[in-house]
Design goal:
The structure holds two protein chains of two kinds.
Chain A (H helix, E strand, L loop, with lengths): L2 H13 L20 H10 L3 E5 L1 H12 L6 E2 L5 H4 L12 E5 L2 E3 L4 E5 L5 H4 L3 E7 L3 E2 L2 H7 L6 E5 L4 E2 L7 E2 L6 E7 L1
Parallel strand pairs in A: 1-11, 2-3, 3-6, 4-7, 6-11
Antiparallel strand pairs in A: 4-5, 5-8, 9-10
Chain B lengths: L7 H11 L1 H23 L3 H17 L1 H14 L3 E5 L2 H15 L3 E4 L3 H6 L1 H7 L3 E4 L2 H9 L15 H12 L7 H18 L2 E4 L3 E3 L4 E6 L3 H5 L5 E7 L3 E2 L5 H13 L6 E5 L12 E7 L3 H6 L14 H5 L3 H4 L10 H11 L17 H5 L6 H14 L5 H15 L1 H13 L3 H4 L4 H4 L12 H13 L1
Parallel strand pairs in B: 1-10, 2-3, 2-4, 4-7, 5-8, 7-10
Antiparallel strand pairs in B: 5-6, 6-9
């Protein structure tokens, strides 16, 4: 008998005669009001820098951020107009990473990033700009998950800059991941 | 990890005597965590959240065989290699195989209490693999050669000054370097490790049976990096970590974050479905090791099985007035504080963990903090009852309680003793040790008449 069989047998023996607990339903999500103001407020509370911009406005923001930098690392899903005039760099070398989010969640101030967009650009550069379309903003995490049709190999939920209070309980940003998270919600 | 829980009272006393700074650091950090948790709980309908979370966990545990089989099926469909481990040796065998096959020289590790149980770091070191703990707190204690002292904040027992000294000796940073500067030094060392390691090791907060999703929570980004950059990712998952549905994460992720650190959600959550797909960045191999190591025995326990609901958030540690005095080290095993006191006797044996259920005032703060309502105070008493029934309590305690019982059961003996005790010298004269108690308090003066007599006189007075 292998470990798997022995473990499963022990689990079954342990549960013999044990009452089966019911699985509760998910709660009803609250009426979806406009989640954008809440998203922007929560992101700011989480230490991110949120903006509500037109695509052109976001492109101007990106160019401003990239000014004086040797180049930018792009996620696969970032549309061409955002890349124009900028020097693409590998994420290991780029001081700025730009990602295209799958969706955002207002109640937690969260951006969902797919591995299909490329993981390194989301994690290695010290500054991270995330673009998300207004229509892809959900009021709650449950609503976002209920709408999710397929899962990528890895889904990263980012709710602010990398931080730690492990050294003497003092909050430090940018410990391993990006220390600066800038978000542009595209109108 | 070898358990030294038996030494708890001695180790706690020694720590308080020899390292008074620990108490200050731990009390400060846990009070901070606890206040943040209370604020975060107050923001949501927490009673309803906790009740629902308890119900989901109880459902998953009472159908654990089915969910294990479903999770295994989904993981395999996702291209994940699934292993089962009953004991640390099973985990070691798998790691040895991977290290040899992939030529692993360097491994990056995300914080995981289960890998502490399994002794993963010593094993990898014995294979000649350089292991980097990548959580900043965990990295600090790795440099010091210490075990974690808290489930969520492994280095909360260290003061800034101790860390400055450590980095001065290791990396030559100035003795007054700022936390930012120290973090940058660690970032540089660990970034190099992330980029060159062949193996990434993690635990998991949850494993979703329906989709085969591994869910991991953190604030630094080191878990995302450990599970994204190396070509091989091995996740160790206790079999109690199963959740039925992906959507259950919409409850459990925020609930755990609020309980652990008072956040609405931890800064980074990794939801992993498997190895990189064609043309993607990410690991080529993902392994999930489903670990028993005492959990099926706990599941069979008619009372203590409820500890398997534990989310490892550390909220009960932060709320505990006993834990706050010493931090986790004196408890002598991976899990400390109130949850450790009820979990360790089940994972080890009551004999090995005997003193831990006594490391509590039974104040009940742990139960109020627990996001899945584990009845910790009740279970502390359960383990104490069992300890007495198994004859584990010391002989003097048993003799004293047997004598007490004899006296309390016999009115004649009771009267005799209460009369005799009033004739004895007062405790404050007898025991200079009580000075701390008697300072600031009036002397203990026994009543001239015992309560029994006063009561009788009062009743007779009423009857007249």
């Amino acid at each position: 008998m292998d470990a798997r069989t022995r473990i499963l047998n022990r689990v079954r023996r342990a549960l013999e005669g044990r009452p089966k607990a019911l699985l509760p339903e998910h709660p009803h999500s609250p009426f979806p009001e406009d989640p954008i103001p809440l998203l922007l407020a929560r992101l700011a509370e989480n230490g991110a820098e949120p903006h509500l911009l037109s695509p052109e406005g976001a492109q101007a923001l990106l160019r401003e951020l990239a000014q004086g930098l040797p180049g930018v690392a792009f996620g696969q899903g970032v549309p061409t107009p955002f890349r124009e005039g900028l020097n693409p760099l590998p994420p290991e070398e780029a001081p700025l990473g730009v990602s295209w989010a799958l969706f955002a969640v207002a109640e937690t101030g969260t951006l969902a990033l797919s591995s299909a967009d490329g993981r390194r650009a989301q994690l290695l550069p010290p500054t991270h700009l995330v673009l998300v379309e207004r229509e892809r903003v959900y009021p709650t995490l449950l609503q976002a998950f209920q709408d999710l049709k397929e899962l990528p190999s890895a889904l990263g939920l980012h709710s602010g800059p990398s931080k730690s209070a492990d050294i003497g309980q003092v909050m430090v940003k940018g410990v391993h991941g990006p220390g600066r998270l800038i978000v542009a919600v595209l109108t | 990890m070898r358990a030294k829980a038996k030494l708890y009272p001695k180790e706690a006393a020694r720590l308080l005597r020899e390292k008074p700074g620990v108490r200050e650091a731990v009390t400060g950090a846990t009070l901070h965590f606890d206040r943040n948790r209370l604020k975060a709980y107050a923001e949501v309908p927490i009673a309803e959240w906790r009740e629902r979370a308890k119900a989901v966990k109880d459902h998953a545990l009472s159908h654990l065989d089915q969910y294990l089989e479903l999770a295994e099926k989904r993981l395999k469909e996702n291209g994940v290699q699934v292993h089962y481990a009953e004991e640390p040796e099973d985990a070691h065998r798998l790691l040895r195989e991977i290290v040899e096959r992939r030529g692993v020289k360097r491994a990056v590790k995300a914080k995981s209490m289960l890998t502490e149980e399994l002794g993963v770091n010593p094993l990898l070191a014995s294979l000649g693999v350089e292991v980097y703990e990548t959580d900043l707190g965990e990295y600090l204690i790795q440099l010091l050669g210490e075990p974690p002292s808290h489930i969520v904040g492994p280095a909360i027992h260290l003061s800034l000054k101790e860390i400055q000294t450590l980095f001065h000796e290791r990396f030559g940073t100035p003795l007054d370097a700022s936390p930012e500067a120290l973090a940058q030094v660690a970032r540089k060392v660990l970034r190099e490790a992330f980029l060159t390691a062949e193996l990434g090791i993690s635990g998991a907060n949850f494993l979703v049976a329906e989709t085969g999703t591994l869910a991991l929570m953190e604030n630094e980004g080191n878990i995302r990096l450990s599970t994204s950059l190396p070509k091989v990712h091995v996740a160790f998952v206790g079999i109690e970590k199963l959740l039925p549905r992906f959507q259950d994460l919409a409850l459990f992720l925020p609930l755990t974050a609020r309980a652990a650190t008072g956040q609405r959600l931890s800064t980074f959550v990794s939801l992993i479905q498997g190895p990189a797909r064609k043309g993607e960045e990410g690991p080529e191999e993902v392994h999930v090791v489903l670990v028993d190591h005492g959990r099926t025995a706990l599941l069979a326990d008619p009372e203590a099985w409820e500890t398997l609901r534990c989310l490892r958030c550390g909220a009960c540690l932060n709320a505990c007035p006993v834990y706050r005095q010493t931090g986790g080290h004196p408890y002598g095993y991976v899990y400390s504080g109130p949850i450790g006191a009820v979990l360790d006797p089940g994972l080890l044996s009551l004999e090995e963990a005997y003193p831990l259920p006594y490391a509590s005032t039974l104040c009940g703060a742990c139960l109020e903090a627990c996001p899945v309502k584990i009845p910790i105070p009740k279970l502390l008493l359960t383990w104490r009852h069992r300890a007495v029934a198994e004859g584990l309590s010391p002989a003097w305690e048993r003799a004293m309680l047997a004598a007490y019982r004899r006296v309390m059961e016999s009115p004649a003996l009771y009267r005799l003793f209460s009369k005799a005790l009033r004739g004895l010298p007062l405790p404050q004269d007898l025991l200079p040790l009580l000075r701390a108690w008697t300072e600031g308090r009036g002397p203990l003066k026994p009543s001239p008449k015992p309560f029994h007599q006063l009561w009788r006189e009062m009743e007779e007075g009423h009857g007249r």
